[in-house]
Amino acid sequence: MIEADFLTTTRASYDTMAAEYTRRLRDELSTRPWDRAVLAGFAEVVRTGGGGPVLDVGCGPGRITGHLRDLGLDVAGLDLSPGMVAQARQAHPDLRFIEGSMLDLDVPDGTLAGLVAWYSVIHVPDDRLPRVFAEFHRVLAPGGHVLLAFQEGDEAAHRTDAWGEPVSLVFHRRRPDRVADLLHEAGLVVQARMWRGPETLCGRPEPTPQAYLVARRPADDRA
Fold first, then answer.
1. How many helices (H) and strands (E) does the chain have?
2. Are the beta carbons of 3 and 145 closer than 8 angstroms?
3. Which tens digits make up the pLDDT trace of 87-103?
4. Which pLDDT tens digit goes with each residue over 162-192?
5. Are the C-beta atoms of 176 and 107 separated by less than 8 Å?
6. What is the spatial distance between Cα 126 and Cα 140, in angstroms, rounded to a whole number?
7. Which residues lie below 8 Å from residue 162, measured CB to CB, with a gap of 6+?
């Protein structure tokens, strides 16, 4: 029931604010040099590793998916919210977007060269993260990389309003060391970490620092 409630409320909240979210964040990446640097580094690692399909998990309206395509990756997007998937398909008709949950990815074992979870694991409860990271390990090919972006901190925040629309979203803020430990337990080896201080998002200061981790499924992991 906890899992069902988490999925249901997250899906409904993003459906509610899909159009306004898309409008407000459409050009947000252009103002974030550190974010672009992280994404560029990830794309280069995937390309030099031989390339292959990449999945943007929790893609929202597809702004990161489109940017990764522009960086030369063979990328598709997945999101829990039908409303967000509709926005993504409208904005990027040349890319593939599907509905789905990161707890149960409809992806064959060991087929992805890369996976991006850009501020999408922030809504996953603590007790579900091991399952999510196990799924990431399962779908990555040996030598494949995963990129996570998330809010740093110790306390969760509950948001009930988004630009005047009623929502119910829990933002789980986490310490990078704890996330790295969970990735390790899932069989993924952290290769890079980055931290940046709060900036401005949609005209308002971010409440927390931001963290980025890049992890890899070992090349000799054929299980």
1. 6, 11
2. no
3. 999 999 999 999 999 99
4. 888 889 999 999 999 999 999 999 999 999 9
5. no
6. 22
7. 13, 16, 17, 20, 21, 169
